Amino acid sequence: MTYVIAKGCCNDASCVSVCPVDCIRPRPSDPEFKTAEQLYIDPASCIDCAACMWECPVSAIHDENDMPSGLDIFRDINAEYFEHNPLRVTETARTGRRKLPETRPKLRVAIVGAGASGCYAAEALAVVPGVEVSLFDRLPTPYGLIRAGVAPDHQKTKSITKQFEKVLKRPNVHSYFNVELGKHITVEDLLEWHHAVIVSVGADDDRKLGIPGEDLPGSYSAREFVAWYNGSPSHADSSFDLTGEQVVLIGNGNVALDVARVLAERPKAFAATDMTDYAIDALESSGVREVMIVARRGIDEAAFTTSELHALTELDGVDVVIRKEEVEADVAAPLSNDSFGTRGKRDLASRICVQESGDADRKITFRFRHEPVSINGDTEVESITFRSTLDESVEETIKTRLVLRAIGYRTSPTPGVPFDPKKGTIPNDGGRVVNVDMEHAVQGLYCTGWAKRGATGVIGTSKWCSIETVNAIFEDFEQGLLRDPAALDEEVLGFVASRQPELIDLEGWLRIDAAERLRGAEAPTPKPRRKFHSLADMLSVGLGQRA
Ligand SMILES: Cc1cc2nc3c(=O)[nH]c(=O)nc-3n(C[C@H](O)[C@H](O)[C@H](O)COP(=O)(O)OP(=O)(O)OC[C@H]3O[C@@H](n4cnc5c(N)ncnc54)[C@H](O)[C@@H]3O)c2cc1C
Ligand code: SF4
Ligand code: SF4
């Protein structure tokens, strides 16, 4: 018997270190780790001890004899990974627990942004005795995109927040939510009180297509649509025209597949999730029958992961369509890289192509090798025109009222923090923020997560990204490169409260959390939580003005 890693793996590699026979790959030290779609267990070496299953924070590991329905395919996917990457057991560098120098026993670090990367950074810092962490977020709620991005039907993925809650509850981690860098506090302020500042503000802006009609009403970023259905306070008042039969999504990463699932699936599939009530109501009356996902390149370069494509094929009442003529040449060509993920995509796409179209009344259609030329309409979107990237003379216009661009997130500039407008990230060298000329590290300033590396990778990718940044801080501290802050012996709380009297501390967040869970439990169809989506409601509960 073996254990199997299936859908939902967030690549945090927690399972790797607990495996007594070292049979989970790739490991963070392996070159393939950064681009791996997920981790895999070698069935020939697994001794069936279940340690990894108990360790996994998102319940992505299963006993092969007890696989949840629809996930059987992952048994083969795990085994095939090792056919292409035979297991080699090698010694990995083990890191001992850090200690602060005896002469400087106190290190205080501010982290701005309490998303996945900020929480992982807090975790890596707070385990070291003598370290104090101040964790800020501009919202009254922590967890960034885990709360406001990850799809409502990915509740197991969201359960990583249980691990982060333990971090927030550590006595040396102090939460200051509803406090915004650039509005209530500045980098200079923070350096008065802390040795170092980590900027982990994520990516809250969009890449643009740069084509005519992009700004017409009816053309939005997938980011806005995701923030709307997830109840992000900044987008709760948005509305999207779901009366047309066809919605066009540009870009084919996992965000596009999330959005396609939300649009194509029956809304009742979300009734027991934390999707907002207003989004479920809007989807109930939706006229959408086809979601078309269009991308410039071919199947080998498709940005989605095999497991998310496979998840679409398991949806009830939804056909997945891939046109044979758009992938067969790619599939027949020798693999340009030996990526296990590419092989998996080719295999699955080939199988989908030859499937008989079912009798479902909704479908998700993939189109490859087409680039958008213009979004058309007088006062709002009426259609979109694509050009074939194989034959530029071939254009195709598709009638639609809603175009969603899922071509990537980018970081927006944060006041007082260097910014690379080309890459849409904070310029850095292994997490040390550098000036835009990339020559000088800015003393005391660090970054992590999507703001550091761009909007790529899953939640667990940020763990290793944050560990790299935290290691840089410890090295700089040990080498005396960080100035002792003027207010090191004073409480940070008083200073923050003087800037933002409505600050939400850990107790405040736990009040919001408990109230949301209670509302969820009391809903006609019980849910894990019913989120507050207005800042006023969050503050009212968080500040203790309402039970
Ligand atoms: C739609 C979508 C679905 C996804 N689904 C999955 C999935 O199923 N599985 C998976 O593993 N990964 C998924 N991801 C990826 C995952 O969400 C990211 O890898 C991860 O959230 C990045 O973490 P981060 O900390 O860099 O950014 P974020 O999570 O965005 O956190 C940034 C935080 O900074 C705060 N902030 C911003 N500016 C300021 C400021 N000026 N002052 C104070 N605070 C500020 C924000 O409020 C936010 O809380 C998904 C991503 C998206 C967009
Ligand atoms: S079940 Fe045990 S031996 Fe098998 S992969 Fe998990 S930790 Fe390793
Ligand atoms: S989520 Fe983490 S612990 Fe779970 S299988 Fe993936 S890498 Fe392993």
Characterization of this structure:
With 547 residues, this protein is an alpha/beta fold. It has four domains: 82 residues, Alpha-Beta Plaits; 192 residues, NAD(P)-binding Rossmann-like Domain (Rossmann fold, 3-Layer(aba) Sandwich), CATH 3.40.50.720; 195 residues, FAD/NAD(P)-binding domain; 42 residues, no CATH class. Helix content is 31%, strand content 17%. The protein has 19 helices and 22 strands. The chain has a seven-stranded mixed beta sheet with strand order 7-6-5-8-22-21-20, sandwiched between helices. The protein has a six-stranded parallel beta sheet with strand order 10-18-11-12-14-13. Strand 16 and strand 17 form a beta hairpin. Helix 4 crosses helix 16, helix 12 packs parallel to helix 14 and helix 18 crosses helix 19. One iron/sulfur cluster (SF4) binds next to helix 2.
